[in-house]
Amino acid sequence: MSRVLVFRELPADQLERLQAVHAVTVADPRKPEQRAAYDAALTEAEGLIGSSFKIDIAQAPRLKVVSSISVGVDNYDLAALKARGILLCHTPGVLTETTADTIFALIMASSRRLVELAQHVRDGRWDKNIGEDLFGWDVHGKTLGILGFGRIGQAVARRAALGFGMPVRYYSRRPVDLGQVPGLEGKTRHGSLHEVLAGSDIIALTLPLSEDTRGLIGAREFALMKPGAIFVNGARGAIVQEDALLQALDSGHLRAAGLDVFGTEPVPLDSPLRSHPKVTALPHIGSATHETRHRMAVLATDNLLAALAGRTPAAVYAL
Ligand code: NAP
Questions:
Q1: Ligand 1 centroid to 83 CA: how many Å?
Q2: What domains can be seen in the chain, in order of their start residue?
Q3: 284 is catalytic
Q4: How would you write 34-51 as a 3-class SS string?
């Protein structure tokens, strides 16, 4: 039996699996009333499971495994985990299609002004046929640029190329062998960051946040985008310099932006991006469906149970 700290709510069925074999403390450090219990449990914990919180592993001298309920691992101090030989597990794959759905929804919403026009109806302002000032922009047939072409990027590309007749350009450090990606051969093309930004009508960000990608999209990159382009971020807010994004929207260079993620989350009330008329802002819901959040919890629980039992977990992040 090991000591396990659950630092974010876990579905009851997965919590029971852990409690059946381990001594489990549930304490969410984001809730002030649970903070002391979290700090105390961290000093004893051999296994952690949760997400969306920066853990100070210096406070966890007995730690053997961290099981993140997320695919992105930017919240963890990877060098410190590696130095201490602590295993890091995550949840790739099970959230790919749901997150791609969210990104495509943002592409649609930004291009066709869905949120703005739904609000128009709700507000009782639909008193005559809408005019050109409220028209949208076609999505089908537009060139989509995808930054990062891993699981999620490719799932977005499939929706675009096969469903919407969109030519797809993508940027990643290496071209992907499209023979391994059914349906996309001949429909997508690898390019440099510069080429993809300059050659696309709509740009979707699906890169991981790392020291290489932090702040990658700034004033120079927005200037490279076509006038009237749409920018969608379904990855991590800190990859984008938000002041440069705001400037690109305010100057009229960008048509619109769809943002699921922000540099600071929840997005601060005084952030101009939160209520900007050209921004469709979502509260980081990329994977947030009942089915997918449960699948993520199951995989994260499987990973933790395997690691604590001395078996190799299904999804270890290579540090
Ligand atoms: P993945 O399969 O690992 O794909 C990452 C892609 O980015 C690969 O094509 C990789 O290719 C490329 N890449 C990595 N570092 C790069 C760099 N420095 N420069 C250029 N390209 C780089 O990951 P995924 O499962 O698609 O997830 C991607 C990210 O989406 C996650 O890390 C997470 O932060 C985010 N996400 C967000 C939500 C949400 O709720 N909004 C949900 C799930 C995931 P190369 O290594 O060949 O360059």
A1: 24
A2: 3-94+290-308 (3.40.50.720), 96-281 (3.40.50.720)
A3: yes
A4: HHHHHHHHHHHCCEEEEC
Q: What is the pLDDT of residues 39-54, one digit of tens each?
A: 999 999 999 999 999 9
Per-residue pLDDT tens for 55-111?
999 999 999 999 999 999 999 999 999 999 999 999 999 999 999 999 999 999 999
- Whether 236 sits among the annotated catalytic residues: the reply is yes
Distance 148 CA to ligand 1 centre (A): 5
Give the model's pLDDT for residue 90: 98
> Which protein residues are within 6 Å of ligand 1, measured from CB?
71-72, 92, 95-96, 99, 148-153, 172-174, 206-210, 212-213, 234-236, 260-261, 284, 286-287
Q: Given the residues 236, 242, 253, 276, select the one marked as catalytic.
A: 236
Atom 3 (ligand 1) nearest CA: 150
Contact between residue 74 and residue 207 where contact means Cβ atoms under 8 Å apart = no
Distance from residue 189's CA to the centre of ligand 1 (Å):
18
The candidate with the shortest Cα–Cα distance to 97, out of 300, 286, 304, 299, is 286
The ranges of the chain with pLDDT < 50 are none
The two structure tokens encoding residue 261: 């993620």
Structure tokens at 243: 């002041």
Residue 85 neighbours by CB distance under 10 Å: 9
